[in-house]
Amino acid sequence: MLNTQTLNPAVSVVNKGIYRIKAGDKLLIRNLNWSSELFPDPNQMATADGAGAGYKAVVRTDGNISLPELGLVPVAGRTRQAVADTLATLYQDLRNPLFEVSITSLRVNVLGSVNTQGIVLLEKDFLTLGEILAQSGGINYSEASNVIQIIRSEGTQQQVIEYDFQDLGNPLIMNQNIYDNDIVYVPPSRGSIRSVKYQRALVLAQPIITALNLTLIVINFIRLRPNP
Question: Which of 103, 132, 167 is the last residue of a domain?
Answer without folding.
Answer: 103
